[in-house]
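Appendix B: complex inputs.
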Amino acid sequence: MEFIEIVIKSIIIGALVGFGVGAGAARMFHAPKVQGMGAFRTLGELNACAGDAASHFSFGLGFFFNAWASAVGAGAFTQDVDHRIIPNWAAAVLMRKGKRPEDTLHNPKKMAIAGAIIGVLVVTFLNSTASAIPESLQAIAIKVLVPAANLLINPIMPVIFWLAALDAGKRAGLWGTIFGGAAHLIMGNAVPGIVLGILIGKGVDDSGWSKVTKTLLITVILLFVLSAFFRGFDINMMRGFNLEAPSWLIDLHKMIGFEVK
Amino acid sequence: MTNQQETMNEELYNKNFWYADWSFPIFVALLSAGIFAGTHMYFQYHIGAFNDVAIVAMLEAGIQGAGYGAAAAFGASFLFARILEGSLVGILDIGGSLQTGIGIGVPALLLGAGITAPVESFALSLITGGLLGIIIGYVIIGIRKFTVGQSNSTFGADIMMGAGNASGRFLGPLIVISAASASIPIGVGSIIGAAIFYAWKKPVAGGAILGAMLLGAFFPISLD
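Resulting structure:
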């Protein structure tokens, strides 16, 4: 019963995802006039296959095996199902018999329909084979995976992003350091802060203190202030510096429903 | 970006459903409904999340009780950055915005706040994903209207992409280390799997997991 449920849900999910990915990928070829979605690397790879159906198919196939291993092992499809497998296989289906990419790969309507069909097949296959794996085996995968992922989340990713920010120039490094450190204090992980720091630093590098970058900086500061408040960081900080938290602030926390001890 | 732009007239881009700005939110909505429902599948059956092992593992850490903070902050900040970038460059990166932002960040935010219904129910997951997609689509089209031509910065997206890829590379060795700390047979399995995958020029992480599972099937460890 559960198996049938999984298959039905997979068909719906595959059709939705495939339709969106197909249309988005075809629209990328008309960017920036038309808003596309996918990724720059997807666009590059689709171009690299040069409209040859066999190249598109084998490129997708290489990633398909990897996605399969990951789906069976950890229940994770990898991002390549959306980035590589669906767009390339949809292109391969449309371009069989040597049709031109301009009439197939660049046409959102054709790509959306082909993508939906490929999406149904790929998602259903991955989910039904992955669900056939006994639960005890998946449990082992998780037991191995979770500690590894925890190490990755902290401290490895913060360090890599931080070093990338420091290497990206003075502004990105400075803002990355300030917001990264603050993010670790407030949210418990530095990565989001560093990402926002790079965003601001590089934005100012490229276009100066324009309206866009100023709005960005204010939004980011607001984001930090709000999440600090809702996590009770403001009161913890005062206490950390051996200061008495004013009672109106504690009352304010209580009023909004986020009580602090 | 193609020579087609010259031959195709402006009319087509503005009026035709498949190319128009106003239809963009619909495509985003469909895709993000599917991706959000994929996270529902993961929550319910432990299969079918549309993301890389390293990122799904952040959500898993939350489900196992280690807190959703990391997944939520990571996903939400990626969503934020990609929406900005996507509207400025004309290509929305679905990996960061939808697969990580909508598929991992938003569910982590909801679950962290104790709201489980949108992730637990298949129908609700489709609706939630679709609504979020429409909002994102309109925000992007809106930002485009105001900013296109004003800014040609990519806001350091290449740097973040590079750092993201570099941290993904760490996962393979980390899984082997973690497997080797779990038990000797599982460790041996993951070493062999990682070595074989490396020789085949496949990502080491996949081989390490499969190898660990294979030997774990014969030499189980207690899972409490």
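Residues 172 and 199 of chain A are 8 Å apart (CA to CA).
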